Amino acid sequence: MSPHDDHPALNRLPPWVKAKLSSKAVETIVKVHDWVETECIPAEPIMKAQLVENRWKTPQLMKDLRKKAKSNGLFNLFLPKHFGDLSPGLTNLEYSCCAEIMGRCYWAAQTMNCHAPETGNIELLAKYCNEEQKKKWLQPLLDGDGCSAYSMTEPDRATSDATNIACRITREGDTLIINGRKLYGNALWNEDLAFYILMACSDPDNPNQWKRHSTVIVPANSPGLTMKRNLTIMGYDHAPEGHGEYVYDNVRIPAANIILGEGRAFEIAQGRLGPGRIHHCMRLIGQTERAYELALIRCIDQRKKPRGKLIGQFDSNIERIASMRLRLDSMRLVVLNAADVMDTLGNKAGRYAIAQSKILVPEMAANIIDECMQLYGGQGLTQHTALPEMWTYARFVRIADGPDAVHRHQVGRDQLKTAEGFRNRHEAYQRRYQELCEQWGVPYETF
């Protein structure tokens, strides 16, 4: 029996998950919990106050916390085992337990260098870059010196189908020239942003549509790259990282900045997405647990007694609390299962479980947070609580990493491929039924 069995960091985990956690993983999960609870959540108002002074500058508090987390061994926890000594050696399942706790504070993961898009970008660079590129672009991210962004979405194209990406790369000798427009990708206004990983069209006439695009590294200070404005998400600017609207106007970069090779962007994109979606979902669960806690507190608030009863004494609210608890627990099981499938069978085999998480969790989280806001009444729509920001993030994740409609379509198509096998099975039932009718002298009926 672990000395941490009763620790709050573990008390929502099902027994089958606890049985798969190494002793080192348990220690790490507990450390992450204590870090978030003591260093992050209480400091949320301080972070907001420092951002008032300069919306697009990383607050000193964040810089100090990152240094402290790094010195405490709480940095780059997401790194898989193939990173060698840099990796803490956590499985997807073990790291998922950490990610849920990080989600309790919107920016807690950033203090540990475990935030989006950094985790996906670091894995992409590590997996596909050559040694020179790793030294120049990857190592600073691992060290926490600067940050990066991923640039894929476009305003003029339906880039949920990435074959539509039109931002153009043309080549002149050893130089690449980029022209086009992009949406999202962290704000260029933050001086800590070092570079963008850009997906663009380099060979539009290639008969194979999956080989028309390349992935390149674009330094943030490249002449011709301008940020027209910050994109708000449901009214929130998400400073100091934010989301930009960009114009690439004859941006020139070295051809040496191509990752893996020309025409291999889709291969890279597919290799980047799996684990990141799980991280998003687990952080969402942590956030939703915190929203649920706020709802419970509201239910027993002695100052709030409509018609002389506590909010939690109304039958409808008791049922609401029960429903939220059941949905939260089911969300966690879905994502933990996906993480475990990835560990045991690999990312490709876990495609369905990953899609299941990506589809179900953001929508369910937004619904639960909406119920929590309802319990707070008018106050639940204001900055008096973090609930509106939580709801916005959950709604955003339904679009991030691809609209959930795309994932539903893929799951549906995969399921329809199984229909023939089920029809054969049910026809066998019918044949056996006919045999039994003859055996028992019962009239045979067709259906």
Automatic annotation (TrEMBL):
<protein>
    <recommendedName>
        <fullName>Acyl-CoA dehydrogenase family member 10</fullName>
    </recommendedName>
</protein>
<keyword id="KW-0560">Oxidoreductase</keyword>
<dbReference type="InterPro" id="IPR006091">
    <property type="entry name" value="Acyl-CoA_Oxase/DH_mid-dom"/>
</dbReference>
<keyword id="KW-0285">Flavoprotein</keyword>
<dbReference type="InterPro" id="IPR009075">
    <property type="entry name" value="AcylCo_DH/oxidase_C"/>
</dbReference>
<dbReference type="InterPro" id="IPR037069">
    <property type="entry name" value="AcylCoA_DH/ox_N_sf"/>
</dbReference>
<keyword id="KW-0274">FAD</keyword>
<dbReference type="Pfam" id="PF02770">
    <property type="entry name" value="Acyl-CoA_dh_M"/>
</dbReference>
<dbReference type="GO" id="GO:0033539">
    <property type="term" value="P:fatty acid beta-oxidation using acyl-CoA dehydrogenase"/>
</dbReference>
<dbReference type="InterPro" id="IPR046373">
    <property type="entry name" value="Acyl-CoA_Oxase/DH_mid-dom_sf"/>
</dbReference>
<feature type="domain" description="Acyl-CoA dehydrogenase/oxidase N-terminal">
    <location>
        <begin position="32"/>
        <end position="145"/>
    </location>
</feature>
<dbReference type="GO" id="GO:0050660">
    <property type="term" value="F:flavin adenine dinucleotide binding"/>
</dbReference>
<feature type="domain" description="Acyl-CoA dehydrogenase/oxidase C-terminal">
    <location>
        <begin position="266"/>
        <end position="414"/>
    </location>
</feature>
<dbReference type="GO" id="GO:0005737">
    <property type="term" value="C:cytoplasm"/>
</dbReference>
<dbReference type="InterPro" id="IPR050741">
    <property type="entry name" value="Acyl-CoA_dehydrogenase"/>
</dbReference>
<dbReference type="Pfam" id="PF00441">
    <property type="entry name" value="Acyl-CoA_dh_1"/>
</dbReference>
<comment type="similarity">
    <text>Belongs to the acyl-CoA dehydrogenase family.</text>
</comment>
<dbReference type="GO" id="GO:0003995">
    <property type="term" value="F:acyl-CoA dehydrogenase activity"/>
</dbReference>
<dbReference type="InterPro" id="IPR009100">
    <property type="entry name" value="AcylCoA_DH/oxidase_NM_dom_sf"/>
</dbReference>
<feature type="domain" description="Acyl-CoA oxidase/dehydrogenase middle">
    <location>
        <begin position="149"/>
        <end position="251"/>
    </location>
</feature>
<dbReference type="InterPro" id="IPR013786">
    <property type="entry name" value="AcylCoA_DH/ox_N"/>
</dbReference>
<dbReference type="InterPro" id="IPR036250">
    <property type="entry name" value="AcylCo_DH-like_C"/>
</dbReference>
<dbReference type="Pfam" id="PF02771">
    <property type="entry name" value="Acyl-CoA_dh_N"/>
</dbReference>
